[in-house]
Amino acid sequence: MISRRDFLQVAMATSAIYGAGGLGSWSRLAAQQALSQDDLLGFETTGNVTLMHVTDIHAQLKPVWFREPEINLGVGAAAGQPPHVTGRDFLKLYGIADGSPAQYALTYEDFTSLAQGYGKMGGLDRIATVVNAIRADRPDALLLDGGDTWQGSLTALRTNGQDMVNAMNLLGVDAMTSHWEFTLGIDRVTEIVDNELNFPFLGANIFDSEWNEPAYEPYKMFERGGVQIAVIGQAFPYMPIANPGWMFPNLSFGVRQERMAEVVSEVRDAGAELVVLLSHNGFDVDRKLAADVEGIDIILTGHTHDALPEPLLVGKTHLIASGSHGKFLSRLDLDVRDGELKEVKHKLIPIFSDVIAPDPEMAALIDAERAPYEAELSEVLGHTDSLLYRRGNFNGTWDDLICDALLEVREADIALSPGFRWGASLVPGAEIRREDVFNATAMSYPAAYRTDMTGEMLHIVLEDVADNLFNPDPYYQQGGDMVRVGGMGYRIDISKPQGERITEMTLLKTGERIDPSKTYAVAGWASVNEGTEGPPIWDVVEQHIRNLGTVEIAPNQTVSVVGT
Amino acid sequence: MELTRRQTLALGVATGMTLVLPLPALAAVEEVGGIDDFTGGATPSDSGVTVTAPEIAENGNTVPIAVDAPGAVEIRVYATGNPLPGIATFRFGPLAGSQSASTRVRLSGTQDVVAIAKMADGSFAQASKTVKVTIGGCGG
Fold first, then answer.
1. Cβ separation of B140 and A473 shorter than 8 Å?
2. Which residues of A270-289 are buried (b: 16+ CB within 10 A; e: fewer)?
3. Which of A252, A385, A386, B128 could form a disulfide with A553 if both were Cys (CB 3.0 to 4.6 A apart)?
4. E strand or H helix at A50, and its extent?
5. Which homologous superfamily is B5-131 in?
6. How far is CA A108 from the centre of its chain?
7. What pTM, to 2 d.p., does this model score?
8. Contact B140 A253 (CB under 8 A)
9. Domain count of the fold of chain A
10. How far is CA A13 from its chain centroid?
């Protein structure tokens, strides 16, 4: 294991003075400095307002491995633009050194070998240390959570999000917005929001679907450093489409750009000198929103799990991308004077769990939350010889494993696994504990269904999901990845319109083309339809892992991608 | 019928206009007709009317839409992909406080919702918005 001191020699010093240098200042600063832990956590406090942003933690209380995507294609105006830059191109764009912690944290390159040295990232107890250190410098710093907080682990599932609510209350969050929160069901969300949460649950785009009236607080005004700050919340726009609408039947979402413009005007009229959008739109949606709605100073982006070492400026709006699974916390020091944002100083703080000491109080809370489930969490189901990860537009080894499990255990021709972006990674040689399986599957509609589908229907499904990802207008994108397919290969031209992207669908076990009129046995999970039947996916995956003993995933070459 | 506040508000929005319901059984639907029937072949301006609709319908059977055209005497709405594209006519009298209206429409699939406004001077304005009707299910 790399020593803490050696580690910090190369750790990220990302305190780029934004606005002056643009890209490239990152590596220079990193090369100049040898950091201590205090340096890593510290920051030359400037301006009069400090914001802290975490998002898409997906209920990861403990540090995890999380491999960033290799394939993350942008379309339309976003083609080739951050965050659709990966691997070597990403290193080059931001001037990140080979083998550096920044490479490990921000790209997939050499992930397995770097993981050995740099270890796991995240952990809410480490995040608490960072938050406390920042509050020591700036006691009234605002901590904002972009949502996808209450879902993604065994303990969050078993406690209906209670472990995360308790932890985020202790962390001292000032406001949050939402997405997967609603998959706990509207009654539970209402119970938490009304009775348990110590801070507002914001969503300017959440409406009563019957009367089209706002259903949640759209924004919260804060006074910090003598500055009036409006924090507007924007929940995931496609909640009832991408997730089961029957779990929150009376709510309507949507991007609602006109509504956002109205709310921005309203808060400006109410005296806001700084307008912050705490968003779960997804990065590309926010990029368009920033261009089309005036008056937003900062967008704290979420949903698409991107981590960018520098803000991205659209007009006068600074877009911040703070990653996922607790890997990062963004700190922003802002100089707001004369009712105007004058300067932004930004740092994407990597939460290296071997470097940042856990906060004792939060560590104790986490231990207490996990204690009732410890035996269940820690049971070893098998081992993996392959890197297991989820992220990537078309496939990932976790979903290869899940699809194999569905094909084997559910005796299907074809398997479908949703293009979720959450799910921690496992490095080769690791034990697969039950907790790890739940980190890739834990959610409230896990039934592993088995059904008959015609070839034509399969094509419609793939085309529909592909358009959610590759529609050139970001407002039509839902922010997930492509549905993962087992037992079937296909060709996708991402430049084509819906209906023409997917061709050459092939049943792998026979090598024959999929016949539109023929019926195939299809197994999948996470259907948004009410009343879907089947065993929970984690039981299917566990059985498969136990049968295998040791997991080894062959390279997946079943999807041919063109039009990039 | 006892009117709640919300119902009263909903009715209030409709004051000063005629709403043709998008029910195929009503002969009134025929009145909406085609776009050319309304414009007489004139080329509408692309400013002066806005149509608000979700980018992706949460339920294709009841999609909320709104139209707004300051100074218009009439706005017609067309769902270009529906079996009967002409879905609504809103007429505004001289006492109308604003020339805007909202309703819910059924969309048979992904398509453009087009609003055409006839202005007081007889000119036309047009706007459209693509509403996607999706099978959904894989947002991450």
1. no
2. eebbbbbbbbbbbbbbbbbb
3. A386
4. strand A49-54
5. SoxY domain (2.60.40.2470)
6. 16
7. 0.90
8. no
9. 2
10. 23
